[in-house]
Backbone:
């Protein structure tokens, strides 16, 4: 197999995996609890900026140089996202879902403004760069292939590079490949852990209560469940996962700017992924994320190839400048396609590729409340 | 004998899968007030909604002046000359009294003004409040608005779903008076009522429904006099 | 004082007019179709670009060709309703909300595809303030915006209170079940709602473009203040939306006035956050809005 293709597939899976983390987070909120979060971008950005600011080894015109270890920063990124989510949920969670949608769009926009305007902390529109990435600078030779550990010297060197004590030597292609592979492994592992945990949660009494609330709020309320507390937990949990997604994304991209909170790629793409894959189905969320990212990225490559072909010397239909202009316009065509796919799925297969699988009913299912035959509330005869 | 204004012929109907009416027979002739009484959950209101196309009819037929209208959607039923006054939320609260009446004539393209004038003659209190939002009126006057709105198009039959529910005894008597006046002015009325005794008192005929089935039928006075009917619920007939 | 009027209050009133016109559509759609239409901002963008094309083609003033653009956009909106919203009329409202998200993406990307993303000017050249109004600084185009808004508001008021379809729109918004029982043709009311909402959105967009510039993301930028205005005024209440729009427009601009000391009270970079803050405060304090709209 062509090495270039392998590297492309690896990047595809890595980004697909990051989106899977986001889609799983949205699935907790929307799929299981019916909470309409239209501000995924905001929670993602909080995670990404937390990761960036806490781990960058040197501060360049922004808050930073905390030089935290990567995993610890990832945990804190989740916590910060969760705190923001808690604040917004405290206000909006009891209102109809449209309100939550507009409020979350709002919070995402405000956060984008903060990241753009607070130069001292975020370097404004220029963003934060040189974000350390897990497994950077690791070499094949450094790994003890028997135990999987880094050898002592290599670990030290790795540490020195990641802390900025040593100049980062330009990685060889081999090293880049190894880093990419290990990073992909980490992303896959995180997705797997989240999947297993969410599946367990879904089948637990907590998860069953969630779907009961989503399907029939009145009945669940009558059963003595504190609906607001449950919904709040679910919203915060989902947002923490989005923060985690942001923390991974920041490492993967190595640099972020306020565009990381772009509602198109960060919010709507995730929605389309979840709905395409199947709301309330964790496998569906992962499948949708990888599949839709493949469509998103694949169409980009296709359009580039097409434009290169059309502007090549042999065909010569487009000048290079025209090809450049069209490549920008094709990007919008891809967005249009994403919107169209969403509409198509909503109308033709609203349950998504993998429909929801209900956990086995509780030992004693609560009777479905039949529609009222006669009006109630007036005195009986 | 000409066809009855409204006829329910062996009707089976319900909400979704739940069947509530089992083999209902009911007839309303021209110029009559017919009252449906029965205990809670007997399917009284359901029968009325079935006429208006608001629920699933599985078997049987609804005929309006001999023409079958089974399953016709509500907006079409209105055009065929049936007017329905639901028990609750039966006025447009934020629209003025006059606008409510105009809406009653929505399906007609004629100028509603002359008919509105007639409605004001029937319900004089409405005239002075015609510019007020209907929601600001008293309970009795709201019922007048609701009935006036329903009468705008000279319906062949007026369906009233518990017009006195939730009203104080004073207003209740007033409403029954109004119903009798409307009838005297030429409207045929089918009415569901909890206040069985008073309702049967003004009715030409009545039906007693129990568990979604016909139990008794007869003249209004006849049903009041019937011992079994009285034992079943007329004793509590004065409650609210 | 003059500085306050010229650089804070008047711009606020102008912005308020634009928000108000935009928010009416959101409020009406919510009242009658019972869902939050997130594609509203981009319907506006579509209308702005149609207007811009007519301006290029005919060289007429944007306000002259605007009615045609309003009609075309309204027509397009009816088509989009058929394709993307009608299938969900009897579904839970959230389906329509998601569909409106998809539609938002589609309209915007279509506009970007056909018209490109360069920032454009609706009218070329810089207008000086009108001489006869000195020391008030108002430009001719700004008077058009104020006058246009007043005309459109009066037209909307007459439509809602004097015409049969307008009264039917209010009736459906008030009590949809009873409206159906009364024989009101709900589909026609829905169509009228789209036409009215889309037309006013186009006007809002063209006014905004006259006052500032034309860009493809102006709809998304407007979305938050328009929703905030609709919520502030009481959702489902067109007059409330007008009130809410004015309040938010004015507060946004006036918040940058150096009330205390010499620096702006609020960093102008956060202007867009004002609408959000007002909305959140409203949700906490009075979710039904100033004019007692429908509560979620």
Residues:
């Amino acid at each position: 197999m062509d090495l270039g293709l392998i590297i492309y597939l690896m990047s595809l899976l890595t980004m697909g995996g990051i989106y899977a983390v986001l889609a799983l987070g949205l699935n907790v909120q929307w799929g299981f609890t019916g909470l309409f979060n239209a501000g995924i971008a905001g929670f993602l950005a909080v995670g990404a900026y937390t990761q960036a600011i806490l781990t960058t080894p040197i501060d360049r015109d922004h808050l930073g140089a905390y030089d935290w270890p990567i995993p610890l920063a990832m945990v804190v990124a989740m916590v910060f996202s969760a705190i923001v989510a808690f604040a917004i949920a405290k206000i909006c969670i009891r209102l109809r879902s449209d309100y939550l949608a507009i409020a979350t769009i709002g919070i995402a926009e405000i956060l984008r403004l903060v990241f753009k305007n607070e130069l001292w902390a975020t370097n404004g529109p220029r963003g934060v760069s040189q974000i350390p990435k897990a497994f950077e600078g690791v070499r094949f030779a450094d790994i003890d292939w028997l135990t999987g550990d880094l050898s002592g010297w290599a670990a030290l060197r790795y540490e020195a590079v990641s802390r900025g004590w040593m100049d980062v030597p330009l990685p060889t292609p081999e090293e880049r490949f190894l880093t990419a592979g290990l990073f992909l492994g980490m992303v896959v592992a995180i997705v797997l852990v989240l999947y297993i945990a969410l599946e367990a949660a879904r089948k637990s009494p907590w998860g069953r209560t969630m779907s009961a609330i989503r399907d029939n709020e009145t009945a669940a309320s009558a059963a003595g469940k504190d609906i607001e507390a449950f919904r709040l937990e679910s919203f915060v949990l989902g947002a923490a996962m989005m923060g985690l997604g942001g923390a991974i994304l920041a490492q993967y991209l190595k640099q972020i700017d306020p565009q990381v909170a772009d509602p198109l790629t960060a919010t709507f793409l995730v929605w389309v992924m979840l709905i395409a894959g199947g709301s309330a189905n964790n496998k569906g969320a992962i499948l949708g994320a990888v599949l839709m990212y493949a469509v998103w990225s694949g169409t980009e490559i296709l359009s580039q190839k097409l434009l290169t072909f059309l502007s090549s010397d042999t065909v010569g239909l487009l000048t290079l400048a025209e090809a450049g202009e069209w490549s920008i316009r094709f990007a919008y065509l891809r967005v249009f396609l994403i919107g169209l796919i969403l509409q198509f799925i909503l109308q033709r297969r609203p349950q998504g590729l993998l429909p929801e699988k209900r956990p086995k009913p509780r030992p004693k299912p609560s009777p479905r409340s039949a529609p009222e035959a006669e009006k109630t509330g007036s005195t009986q005869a | 004998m000409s066809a009855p204004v409204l006829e329910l012929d062996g009707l089976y109907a319900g909400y979704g899968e739940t069947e509530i009416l089992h083999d209902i027979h009911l007839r309303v002739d021209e110029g009559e007030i017919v009252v449906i009484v029965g205990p809670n959950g007997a399917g009284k209101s359901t029968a009325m909604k079935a006429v208006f196309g608001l629920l699933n009819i599985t078997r049987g037929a609804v005929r309006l002046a001999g023409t079958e209208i089974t399953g016709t959607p509500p907006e079409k039923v209105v055009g065929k000359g049936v007017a329905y006054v639901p028990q609750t939320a039966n006025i447009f609260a934020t629209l003025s009294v006059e606008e409510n009446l105009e809406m009653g004539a929505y399906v007609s393209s004629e100028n509603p003004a002359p008919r509105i004038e007639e409605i004001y003659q029937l319900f004089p209190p409405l005239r002075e409040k015609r510019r007020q939002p209907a929601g600001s009126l008293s309970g009795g006057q709201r019922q007048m608005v609701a009935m006036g709105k329903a009468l705008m198009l000279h319906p062949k039959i007026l369906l009233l779903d518990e017009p006195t529910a939730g009203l104080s005894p004073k207003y209740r008597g007033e409403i029954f008076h109004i119903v009798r006046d409307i009838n005297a002015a030429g409207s045929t009325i089918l009415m569901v009522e909890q206040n069985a005794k008073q309702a049967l008192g003004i009715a030409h005929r009545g039906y007693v429904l129990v568990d979604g089935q016909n139990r008794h039928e007869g003249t209004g006075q006849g049903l009041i006099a019937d011992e079994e009917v009285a034992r079943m619920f007329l004793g509590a007939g004065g409650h609210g | 004082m003059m500085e306050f009027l010229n650089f804070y209050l008047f711009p606020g009133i102008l912005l308020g007019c634009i928000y108000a016109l935009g928010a009416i559509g959101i409020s009406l759609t919510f009242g009658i179709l019972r869902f939050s239409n997130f594609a509203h901002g981009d319907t506006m963008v579509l209308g702005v670009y149609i207007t811009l094309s007519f301006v290029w083609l005919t060289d007429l003033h944007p306000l002259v060709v605007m009615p045609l653009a309003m009609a075309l956009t309204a027509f397009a909106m009816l088509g989009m309703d058929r394709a993307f919203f009608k299938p969900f009329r009897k579904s839970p409202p959230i389906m329509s909300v998601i569909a409106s998200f998809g539609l938002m993406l589609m309209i915007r990307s279509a506009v970007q595809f056909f018209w490109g993303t360069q920032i454009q000017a609706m009218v070329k050249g810089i207008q000086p303030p009108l001489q006869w109004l000195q020391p008030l600084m108002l430009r001719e185009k700004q008077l058009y915006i104020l006058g246009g808004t007043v005309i459109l508001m009066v037209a909307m008021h007459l439509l809602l209170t004097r015409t049969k379809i307008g009264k039917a729109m209010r009736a459906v918004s008030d009590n949809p079940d009873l409206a159906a029982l009364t024989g009101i043709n709900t589909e026609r009311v829905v169509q009228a709602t789209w036409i009215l909402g889309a037309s006013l959105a186009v006007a809002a967009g063209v006014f905004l473009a006259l006052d500032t510039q034309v860009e493809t993301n102006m709809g998304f930028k407007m979305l938050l203040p328009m929703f905030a205005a609709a919520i502030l005024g009481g959702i489902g209440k067109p007059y409330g939306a007008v009130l809410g729009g004015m309040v938010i427009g004015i507060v946004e601009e006036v918040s940058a006035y150096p009330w205390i000391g010499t620096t702006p009270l609020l960093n102008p970079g956060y202007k867009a956050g004002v609408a959000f803050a007002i909305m959140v405060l409203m949700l906490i304090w009075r979710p039904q809005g100033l004019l007692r709209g429908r509560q979620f």
Chain C has one domain: 2-113+133-285. Chain C has a mean pLDDT of 91.
